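Hello again, I could really use a second opinion on something today. Take your time with it, there's no hurry, and the full record follows here:

___
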Amino acid sequence: MDIPSEEYSEEYFQIIRKRYLLQDAWMKTRIMDVISSLNPSPGETILDVGCSVGTISLECRKRGALVTAVDYSDIAIRMARELELEVLGENGIEYRSLDVKDISSLSRKFDKVVTADFIEHISRELFEIFISGVKHLMRVGSIMVIYTPNGSVKPNFFQKFVRLLGLLSCFKNDDLKREERHSFSRRSYLSSELEVTLDEKYEYLHVDVKTASYLHETLIKNNFKIHKIKVSRGSSRLQKLPYPFNILWGGHLCVIAEKVCA
C-alpha cells in the first residue's frame, strides 16, 4: 500500500535539508553517485521525480540544466523552493506538485529523467504506472537514472561473510575511504532534535525496496536499454564487478537506462 502524502512531515524534509546544507558523508556520496551517473549539462532538460527538498534538482541547475522537479507533497515543493532560494539566491527550477501516477500529464519532453531515493517509497504497481507514463515524456535516446536502496540481498550479508574470512582488507577501495566522507557522520547534526536518522524513524515509509532484477525486467519491458547497473557506497572493490555479481554487496543501486524506441 502506498503512503499518503500527509505522512511526509516537515520534520522529515527538514532532516534532508539539514544534511544537504551540512554536506554530511551520506549526502556527499549520494550527490556524487547520482550526478556522475546523470551527467547534467548546460541546456539539457531534466525531470526530477520525487524531488523531496530538491537536492538533486539543485545540483543539476548548478551545472546549467533546465530542471522540472515534481513531488506529490506540497510541503516538499515549498521547502524545495525555499532551499533553492537560500542556496542560489533565486528560483530557476520549475516545481510541480504532482502524484507520480499522473506523470504523463506533463506536456513537455525531457532529455533526462532522474529519480533518487524515491521508488522505494511506492509499490511495484505504482512504479510500473510511473515507468509507463514517464517514457512518453522522453525522446528516443533520452537517459533515465534510478537511484534506490538495493533490495537484491539483505544489507551487508556478503560483506559480513568476507570480514569473517578476513578478506576485506584485500579488496579495500582507498578512494572510498577518504577522510572527508567522515567529516559528518549520519548522526552528527548541529541541533539535537535532528539526531534521529531517516533509516530509523521513517523506515516505514519504504513500502517496497526494489531488486536489480525487477528493475531490469521492468525497464526492458518498457522499451529501455540498460546501460549499467552499479552498486554505490562501496567499501570493497568487489562492488566494482559487473552486474549481476556486484549486487551481492549491499549499498544503493544506480540504474542507467536509455529509451530506445517510441
User: Anything to note?
Assistant: The two ends are 31 Å apart (CA to CA). The first strand starts at residue 45 and ends at 49. The longest helix spans residues 74-88. Residues 5-259 form a domain with the Rossmann fold fold (CATH 3.40.50.150).
